[in-house]
Amino acid sequence: MRDKGVFAIRKALPRMVLFPSCTHQDLTPRQSWHPKNLFNLHERTAGSRVGEIDFKRSEKKLFQQRWISKSVVRAYHGDLIGEKIFKSWYLPESLPDVRPRRKVFGDDGAELTAFARRSRRAEREKEREEEEKELARGLAPIGSLMFGEVERRLDVLIFRCCFAPSIYEARRLVIHGNVLLNGRKHSNANTRLAPGDMFSVRPSAIKFLQPQKKSDESDNITERLKAPVGSTPFNLPFFASPWLFIPAYLEVSFLTCSAIYVRHPTARPQYSEIPTPYDADGEVVRAAWEWYMQNRSRKRTEKQWSRMPDDRLHPQMQERRLGSNSIRFAIAQATRNELR
């Protein structure tokens, strides 16, 4: 069984799933609202298992540190994606540079100052002060941006919008035809969205928007209150509040159960937009990135490109690639004509 032991207590790894069969062997945080997942998250971040991923005073070798880091990080980010597929299609070639761009001023400062007078000088001083403040805040934690491609997946975005209590539930919604992508039914949960894409979930398919089964006696005071006629029931699972947040790159409308993927995740000093239970630029994420830099797919043939998961951004990138190639070809052709 694929999800057997997914909430096991021994390894404490947070996961994405909600109600799989559980054993007490794998204490790993996942992307899920399950109470056991919250316990696993506590054990890994503030509980008794923190020392297992603290390598400052560890006797483990560098290979062991990278292997453990890769295991715990991948257990939360896309554990349903096979390792080979992740390394081939979801791992970026390099981490983006999100540092503030320092403006280079030329040697003609005196002439420009004389031309623009004092107003231009005041603007430059203000820009320099802003750059110094930005640098004083420190560098942006870009380590977690290695999972930017995973965050673009349709099932992950549905989970991030709090439309599903687990990643597998979000995947079920997509496969069963309960999700619309840009107004059309879409059943491929592996699709990676492009900025500006809108997706919506059928409210009748969301489990916690369905009425609960009536019981003879209930201790929940909210069930005793008389709900207004025609209102949509809302039965939030217990211990779900720590997971109820919306990333900055999503614009969500809970009235229509729809959301827009506004832009790709990014990072700024002391803040990363990709949610992760570990330090966004800590030693665990860095060690995991070092592991993948040494163990990744190097080449992609035409046959491999044909097996790539659905990516709505790929046609745009292909057009840019073809455009750049045509420009290079035109420049080379013009150079040859001049030499002749």
TrEMBL record:
InterPro entries: Ribosomal_uS4, Ribosomal_uS4_CS, S4_RNA-bd, S4_RNA-bd_sf. Keywords: Coiled coil, Ribonucleoprotein, Ribosomal protein, RNA-binding, rRNA-binding. The keyword tRNA-binding does not apply. Residues 112-139 form a coiled coil. One of its GO terms (biological process) is ribosomal small subunit biogenesis. GO terms for cellular component: mitochondrial small ribosomal subunit. Gene3D superfamilies: RNA-binding S4 domain. SUPFAM superfamilies: Alpha-L RNA-binding motif. The keyword Protein transport does not apply. Signal peptide: none annotated. Pfam families: S4. Residues 152-210 form the RNA-binding S4 domain. GO terms for molecular function: rRNA binding; structural constituent of ribosome. PANTHER family: 30S 40S RIBOSOMAL PROTEIN, SMALL RIBOSOMAL SUBUNIT PROTEIN US4M. Belongs to the universal ribosomal protein uS4 family. This is S4 RNA-binding domain-containing protein. It comes from Mycena indigotica.
